[in-house]
Amino acid sequence: MNADPQLFALEPTATPLPASERQARLVDPGFGRVFTDHMAVARWSDERGWHDARITARTTLTVDPASSVLHYAQEIFEGLKAYRQPDGSAALFRAEQNARRFNRSAQRLAMPELPEELFVESCRALVRADRDWIPESEGGALYLRPFMFASEVFLGVKPSSEYLYMVIASSVGNYFKGGAPAVSLWVSQEYTRAAPGGTGAAKCGGNYAASLLAQSEAIRHGCDQVVFLDAVERRWIEELGGMNVFFVFADGSVSTPPTSGTILAGITRDSILRLLRDEGVAVREEPYAFDQWRDDAQSGRLAESFACGTAAVVTPIGTVNSPEGSFTIGSGGAGPLTGRIKQRLTDIQFGRAPDPHGWRQPL
Ligand code: PLP
Ligand code: COI
């Protein structure tokens, strides 16, 4: 299949939700519960390659109980947003980076790659069809969830010979309820997320399934999110269940854990590194130990910490909790660098500031 954009043509059958009902759903949408009228679909088979690409009415799927994804979890996904621009149009943000990461995940999970331009076009075409679903509210956006799963009906353990690629869209506001000023973290000491040689750098559903028990433990301890340590030494901070993490020091420098194979290479992480370097901030991608984090927070050497990702944007970390006790970072709320970098990033995404790196992609 070549990259003819018509391949993601809009099927004429879709009936949009009446505007009044759509507007009602867009009031305080939260995260991941409000879905749009359409979805993108394409199919892969070993015989035909990619085929049947289209934008169609969003509907339920009929899945055979022996579909291999249900048994062996051969599934990958992405997350990116379409942002409303000051002139009312919509723009994607670095979508080609999501396309590349999708293909790195596909390689790791022994799945077929999707040509980058098809990935990007599927997102563009879906946003064009569902543009009215982008919330008007401050910080609201259309969250796109491209995903691919093994659809061969077969119980043998092997890479599937058939796959379904889809993109669904969700109107979203804040990821954290109430747009919390700062989140609390729980350090998982018993469970790890990913080991060297495993799938930590891939965005596959299995990684998230494996993180849920630790996330439940975090919630049970009254915390918002789990933070994982490395699987070998149980010492180095890796990332949160669905976000990367940054540390801001009192001397003005910033560090973040390196992408050495066990964490997701976040596109927000990469964008923030770029923006900080543009400002002349000293930035290090280096391992940082949990004990050091606690000592630095208590001595005042560490001033701020924040989590970042497409869904979470930039979220200050207020307290860190573990079975051994808790510590507070800075004032326990948003620090100045965290606030500034969030503003700089979102100003570019929402078209309120110049875009020196060409990250914004009008439809
Ligand atoms: N780490 C994990 C485990 C994630 O799920 C995400 C979210 O996609 C991120 C980091 C941040 O990645 P990005 O900034 O590309 O959204
Ligand atoms: C994203 O930020 O896109 C993610 O996939 C993270 C998830 C917690 C929603």
From TrEMBL:
Catalytic activity: L-leucine + 2-oxoglutarate = 4-methyl-2-oxopentanoate + L-glutamate; L-valine + 2-oxoglutarate = 3-methyl-2-oxobutanoate + L-glutamate; L-isoleucine + 2-oxoglutarate = (S)-3-methyl-2-oxopentanoate + L-glutamate
One GO term (biological process): L-valine biosynthetic process
Pfam families recorded: Aminotran_4 (PF01063)
Gene3D superfamilies membership: 3.30.470.10, D-amino Acid Aminotransferase, subunit A, domain 2
Pathway membership: Amino-acid biosynthesis; L-isoleucine biosynthesis; L-isoleucine from 2-oxobutanoate: step 4/4; Amino-acid biosynthesis; L-valine biosynthesis; L-valine from pyruvate: step 4/4; Amino-acid biosynthesis; L-leucine biosynthesis; L-leucine from 3-methyl-2-oxobutanoate: step 4/4
Keyword Transferase among record annotations: yes
Record has Transferase as a keyword: yes
EC number: 2.6.1.42
Modification type N6-(pyridoxal phosphate)lysine: residues: 203
Reported cofactor(s): pyridoxal 5'-phosphate
GO MF term list: L-isoleucine-2-oxoglutarate transaminase activity; L-leucine-2-oxoglutarate transaminase activity; L-valine-2-oxoglutarate transaminase activity
This protein's UniProt keywords: Amino-acid biosynthesis, Aminotransferase, Branched-chain amino acid biosynthesis, Pyridoxal phosphate, Transferase
EC category: transferase
Family as reported in the entry's similarity comment: Belongs to the class-IV pyridoxal-phosphate-dependent aminotransferase family.
PANTHER family: BRANCHED-CHAIN-AMINO-ACID AMINOTRANSFERASE, SUBGROUP IIII AMINOTRANSFERASE
Function of the protein: Acts on leucine, isoleucine and valine.
Name of the featured protein: Branched-chain-amino-acid aminotransferase
